[in-house]
């Protein structure tokens, strides 16, 4: 019985370690997938002879949208923090 309990504890410890490693690796994979998508988009724009000014305008548009969303989300997190503090 003791041997089985030790084996179960060892397996559980190994599982937790591997789970953490998996989470770190999947985070890296998602980051690299995003970068690859960006490179593929840039390559498609290059192949289709898109003007650099058009690409820069699209970039600025997306950046502005992201900045607005960031501000909105920061506000929401601030409200949540304030509510948690109040509670």
Q: Find the structural class using helix and strand composition.
A: mainly alpha
Please give the domain count.
Answer: 2
Main sheet makeup: none
Separation of the first and last Cα atoms? 47 Å
How many helical stretches?
2
Q: How helix-rich are the residues, as a percent range?
A: over 70%
| Number of separate strands | 0
Assembly context of the chains? single chain
**Radius of gyration, Cα only, in angstroms?**
23 Å
Note poorly predicted spans.
none
Shape: flat
- Mean of residue pLDDT? 89
* % residues in beta strands: under 5%
How are helices and strands ordered from N to C?
HH
Describe this protein's structure:
The chain is mainly α and 87 residues long. It folds into two domains: 1-50; 51-87. Helices cover 93% and strands 0% of the residues. The protein is built from two helices and no strands. The longest helix is centred in the first third of the chain and has 46 residues, at 2-47.
List keywords for this structure.
87 residues, mainly alpha, 93% helix
Summarize the structure.
By secondary structure, this protein is mainly α.
Helix-strand blueprint:
Layout lengths: L1 H46 L4 H35 L1
């Amino acid at each position: 019985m003791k041997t089985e309990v030790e084996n179960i504890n060892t397996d559980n410890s190994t599982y937790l370690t591997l789970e953490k490693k998996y989470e770190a690796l999947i985070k890296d994979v998602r980051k690299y997938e995003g970068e690859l998508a960006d490179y593929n988009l840039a390559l498609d724009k290059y192949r289709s002879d898109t003007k650099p000014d058009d690409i820069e305008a699209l970039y600025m548009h997306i950046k502005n949208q992201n900045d607005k969303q960031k501000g909105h989300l920061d506000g929401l997190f601030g409200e949540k923090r304030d509510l948690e503090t109040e509670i």
